[in-house]
Amino acid sequence: MNEINEIKGILFDLDGTLLEMHMSKFYRSYHKYLYPRLSSNLDFGQYLKHYKAAFNKTIANNTGKTNLDIFLDEFFSPFNISRKKGVAILKEFYHKDYQKLRKYVTPLDKARVVVQRAFEQNLKVIIATTPVFMRDAIEARMNWASIDDLPFDLITFAEEFTTCKPYLSYYRDICDKIGLTPKECLVVGDEHKDLVAKMLGCKTFFIKSSMTNLKEDTPQPDFVGNLEDLMELL
After folding, report:
1. What's the pLDDT score for residue 39?
2. Which of 156, 158, 234, 191 has its CA nearest to residue 16?
3. Contacts of 6 (CB under 8 A, 6+ apart)
4. d(Cα 31, Cα 42) in Å, to the nearest integer?
5. In terms of pTM, does the model score above 0.90?
6. Order of strands across the sheet with 185-189?
7. Nearest 5°: CA angle at 12, between 11 and 14?
8. Of 19, 102, 189, 210, which has the maximum CB count within 10 A?
């Protein structure tokens, strides 16, 4: 790693980076399966609007509560079910209907190999996916990417995080949890919310995907390429 010899940790985004997502089909099917599990007076359109509001409130979380607490409190409010029942519904959904969505994702070539290479370089290896989803959902997608059996140092679940991308507090939180400074970390991702980590002092590696939508103020990445290029860098 002569080009980035200060790096001691690597933060991999998941969706679009290690796993290609056919997002529009995935999103529609996700809600087609989840909506019938929740009885309420909301029609499907109202349900989608409500879900988006709960999702956005979770993304913006700065309360100190976990992201999962914020989402559950907001999302289940119109459904007249207890939090315990709601969590059980979500868990059953992720272990059953959610698995049908696998057909809308494609594991990327070299994804497992490059993650294993990071371990071989004695780096701390993190799955830094937006922690708005609970552990069951993220572990399912890691399984689809064929990396769920690897010994990651940290995975950013909604149960354990109080911040989300694109806020720098999310990356500070990761650095604190793994005991590294930002300048010792390389963030690998395909979106603006990954590349903003450069503003904190992290190195960034940009991989373009079908989900890429950069902004005018997106920081210029330190490296650009694909997973094979990242392999060479490591």
Report:
1. 77
2. 191
3. 183, 184
4. 13
5. yes
6. 154-155, 124-127, 9-12, 185-189, 203-206, 223-224
7. 145
8. 189
Name the pairing type of β-strands 19-21 and 105-107: antiparallel
| Beta bridge partner(s), residue 189 | 206
Instruction: Provide block-wise average pLDDT over 10 residues at a time, the chain (234 residues).
Output: 78 96 94 91 93 97 96 91 92 97 92 96 97 96 96 97 97 98 97 98 95 94 96 92
Amino acid identity of residue 92, one-letter, is E
Phi-psi region of 82 (alpha: psi -120 to 50; beta: other; left: phi over 0): beta
Residue whose tokens read 């010899």:
5
Residues 6+ apart with CB under 8 A from 186: 4, 7, 9, 10, 11, 202, 203, 204, 205
Give me the pLDDT at residue 3, please. Answer: 56
Q: Could you tell me the two tokens for 40?
A: 């309420």
The length of the chain, given as a count of residues: 234
Distance CA 73, CA 219 (A): 34
Amino acid type, 15:
D
